[in-house]
What we know:
- The chain is an alpha/beta fold.
- It has 2 domains: 1-336, 3-Layer(aba) Sandwich (Rossmann fold); 360-428, no CATH class.
- It contains 11 helices and 20 strands.
- The strands form 4 sheets. Strands 4-5-3-6-7-8-9-10-14-13-12-11 form a 12-stranded mixed β-sheet.
- A hairpin with a 2-residue loop joins strand 17 and strand 18.
- The longest helix is centred in the N-terminal third of the chain and has 22 residues, at 31-52.
- The chain is globular.
Amino acid sequence: MTISKLDDYLLTVKGYFKSKNFMYKSQYFSNNEIEEYQFKAIYKLLNEVCRYIPYYKNLFWQYDFDVSNFDNLNQIKKLPVLNKQKVLDSPHEFISATYALKGLELSTSGSSGTPLKTYASKNQWIIEQAAIWRHWRWAGYNLRDKIAVVRSYAPKNEEPIFKLDKLKNWLYISPYHLSEKNVIQILNKLKKWEPKFLRGYPSSLYVLAKIARNNNIKITSLKGAFTASEVLTESYREEIEETFQIKVFDHYGQAEITTMMHECEEHSGLHILQDYAFTEFEDTDVKEEKKLIATNLFNYAMPLIRYDTGDRVIIDEKQCACGRNFPKVKKIIGRSDSLLMHKKGYFIPSINFYTFFSKINEISKFQIIQHSHNDIEIKIQIINENNFNNLKYHIENEMNERFGTKVFINFTDDFLMSEGGKCNPIIQKINY
C-alpha cells in the first residue's frame, strides 16, 4: 500500500519519540556496542529472509550459507554484492510475503534513469523518521518549529506556489517556480512567516540565497538549513550560509532504504549511521575512493543485503570532535545531477523528474537531454505499448508545464551513453 498522509504523520510521531529515547543513546555507542548491536540485528534479519524472501532462499542454498553458523559480522561477506539491475530484473523475488499487503510502497528517485519500486515495513519507516529527527535535533530543531520546505511540491494549474501544512507547521514552496520575481515573493513571505529552518534541494536553496543577496532581503528568524537529494557543492553551501547567516546540515539517504549519512554540528563530513545500517567500503581502482555497500538492519518488507549503492566515498579516519563513534565520510563522489532550466531561465531540480517517472509503471528507463531552453528531448523506454497514446499525452502535458515549453518525446531503446558506459538520466547542454 502507498503511505497515506495520516500514516506518515503517526509513524513520524513515533519516530520522533524513538529519536529522543533509543537513538539519543545509540549515537554515542562505543565501537564494541555498535558491533554487538549490528550483529544481533543482522542475525535476526538473515533468519527472516531465509524463510520469507525467495531470492535469499535460493542464494543461501547456492552459496551454502547456513544462518545457524553465523557468529561474526564479517561472515556476511560470503554473500555476493547485490546490484540494482538484479533487483530490477525480478523485484518480486525480494518482497516478503508477510509484508506484501501491509508494507509501505515507495519508489526510488531513479538516479540511474531506471526507477525502482521498493517496500518498507512500518517499523522501518519509524526508524527512518527517528534517524531524520535526530539529525534535525543536531541542528537545534525542536518539535513544531517552523520549516520552509523547497521540495516535493508541484502545484497544478492555478494552484499557489505556497502550501501551508498546519499539522506539521511546514510551509511547502514549489521548486519549479524559482524565477527572480517569484523568489522575491517567496522571500518576503518567509520574512513575514518567520521559519526557523529551511529544508530543500541544495540547488533550490542556492537560488533563494543568491536572489536574496542580490536584492538585500534578510530573513533573521532562520537557525539552519537541511539539504538532501542532490550534491551539496561548496559554492551552494557558501552562498546559503553566508546569505542567510546560518549553517547547512547535509543529509544522504536512498529510496532503496539501505544506508543513511548525516552532517553533525562540527560540519566536517557526514556520519554513517551504524544504528541504521551495516555499511561496508570496498576498494576501487582509485586509491582513496571506496565503493559504498550497505545492508539496512530493519527493512523486512524488501531487504537488500550487501547492496551496491552505486556511490563512491572518501573516508575520514579521524574521530569526530562531536564525540560520536559513527564513521565519517569526507566526500561523496558520483551523485551530482545536472540542473535543468525552465524557459524563463530559472532552475528546476532534476530530482523532481526522477520522482515523476518513477511513479509510471509502464516506464523502465528515461533520459532528459536539454539542448537549449526551448529544445528538450526526453527519451523513454516503455515496458508495453498497450496504453501508449494516453501515456504520451500525460507525459507531454506534464513536461510542457514543467519546462514552460514544448518538449520532444522519443519512445526508444537507444540512449546516449557516457564513455564509461553509464546511461546518465540528465544531460544538460546549456552553459549557465
